[in-house]
Design goal:
Layout lengths: L1 H26 L13 E4 L13 E5 L5 H14 L5 E6 L4 H13 L4 E4 L8 H8 L4 E5 L11 E5 L1 H14 L6 E5 L7 H19 L3 E3 L3 H5 L8 H11 L5 H14 L6 E6 L3 H12 L4 E6 L6 H8 L5 E4 L2 H16 L8 E4 L4 E7 L2 E4 L3 H6 L14
Helix pairs in contact: 2-12, 3-4, 5-6, 9-10
This protein binds beta-D-glucopyranose.
Length: about 400
């Protein structure tokens, strides 16, 4: 008996030591990596659920908490999961592929069967997807495609080419005359979506550049390709190299300032600005607003971020493309649950990611400006009127 007690005591000590080691491992996560449990969200709606066999069912990895767009997604996931029978955990990668890989490894070690991941860098995320796939986990790319990897099974997305086309068309529909200076901005080249958005915008803007409605103000590479209705990925890459914001509002300000400083009087006056998303649109709009030689501007955006809805109400940003994140979350979780139930999810098409055709589920997008902000975002229950000033 004495011996047995001693063994139990020793086992207890070993277990305690192991727990301390796990605690230390969590604490060694970088301060802003958000990979530690304190900063993650675990939703365990039904403790009686046996689907996870004691582990997590679904791991969700989002690119950064620093942009309202992805905080929206986190909130919509939480709302959707409140009544779910499955256990999930959401981790943020804070704009780092190394954090992203670590996040995926953490979730894999917790026994997930499905990984929903929006990559920071589409190519680099292949390593994270492969780590998950090696354990038999189904990988769903969320909003951003993982590129040049076989390890991605499904893709849930908005129609990103349509986003860019809607932005370009809005500029066309809201300018008057000819020779209008056109300032082009784009997202990060590490994000496949940046190419899709630009492709969509170019498809409608190019004929209007060719016929003289617009004059490109800030990209010699785009000017050189002004007669090409369709651009190769390399050609778009060269343009993006000059006009990328890297999805960073500060970089957007710097680029806009540089472009305005370089522009002569003929590139001022009433101008049009293709801004790729709301975060960069607000920065670019603020910068153009301070240039006294710019008399008016039409500027695009996307994401329907609350701050940009206020900008639209106040007349400081012209439009946004509303991508209903509730729908994307529903599609992603619906797909995950189908997989957990052992069935094959429905898809609506496929995307070539450079290594394979990835089966995809795609949602439509809606253009929002002052004319329909109330109907699309308030009456639809997406936001409350009281979130804004100047709405009834
Ligand atoms: C998303 C946009 C977002 C951007 C920057 C894109 O991949 O589709 O909604 O604004 O990344 O985070």
């Amino acid at each position: 008996m004495v011996k047995k007690n001693k063994t139990l005591w020793l086992l207890g000590l070993v277990a305690l030591f192991a727990l301390m080691l796990v605690g230390c491992a969590n604490n060694t996560d970088g301060d802003d990596s958000n990979t530690d449990l304190d900063e993650s969200e675990e939703v365990t709606a039904d403790p009686g659920d046996e689907s996870s066999e004691g582990g997590l069912d679904v791991g969700i990895v989002l690119p950064t908490r620093d942009e309202p767009r992805w905080v929206q997604d986190e909130q919509r996931f939480k709302d959707a999961l409140a009544d779910s029978d499955y256990t999930t955990e959401i981790l943020f990668s804070q704009g780092s592929s190394a954090n992203e890989l670590q996040n995926v490894q953490t979730l894999v070690s917790k026994g997930i069967d499905v990984l929903i991941i929006s990559p920071h860098d589409g190519d680099a995320a292949g390593a994270a997807a492969e780590a998950a796939a090696a354990e038999g986990i189904t990988v769903i790319a969320y909003d951003r495609l993982i590129t040049n990897s076989d390890a991605v099974d499904y893709y849930v997305t908005f129609d990103s080419v349509a986003v860019g086309a809607a932005q370009g068309q809005y500029l066309i529909d809201n300018v008057e005359g000819t020779g209008i200076p056109l300032y082009l901005y784009a997202g990060a080249a590490s994000d496949n979506n940046a190419f899709l958005f630009f492709e969509g915008a170019w498809s409608v803007l190019q004929p209007k550049i060719a016929d003289g409605t617009f004059v490109i103000a800030n990209s010699s590479e785009a000017e050189a390709l002004a007669d090409s209705p369709e651009l190769s990925r390399d050609e778009m890459g060269r343009i993006l190299g000059q006009i990328t914001t890297n999805w960073d509002p500060n970089e957007a300000i710097n680029k806009a300032q540089t472009h305005l400083t370089a522009a002569g009087d003929e590139l001022k006056g009433d101008v049009a600005i293709l801004a790729p998303n709301d975060g960069t649109a607000r920065s670019i709009a603020d910068t153009f607003a301070t240039d006294s030689d710019v008399t008016s501007f039409v500027i695009t955006g996307q994401d329907a971020e609350m701050a940009s809805i206020q900008y639209i109400i106040d007349g400081k940003q012209s439009m946004t493309v509303f991508k209903d994140v509730r729908r994307l979350v529903e599609d992603a979780m619906g797909m995950a649950v189908t997989i957990l139930d052992g069935d094959t999810p429905e898809t609506t098409g496929s995307y070539d990611n450079g290594a394979k055709d990835v089966e995809a589920m795609q949602s439509e997008v809606i253009v929002v400006d002052q004319a329909n902000v109330q109907a699309e975002l308030i009456d639809s229950g997406y936001y409350e009127a009281s979130d804004f000033t100047g709405l009834e």
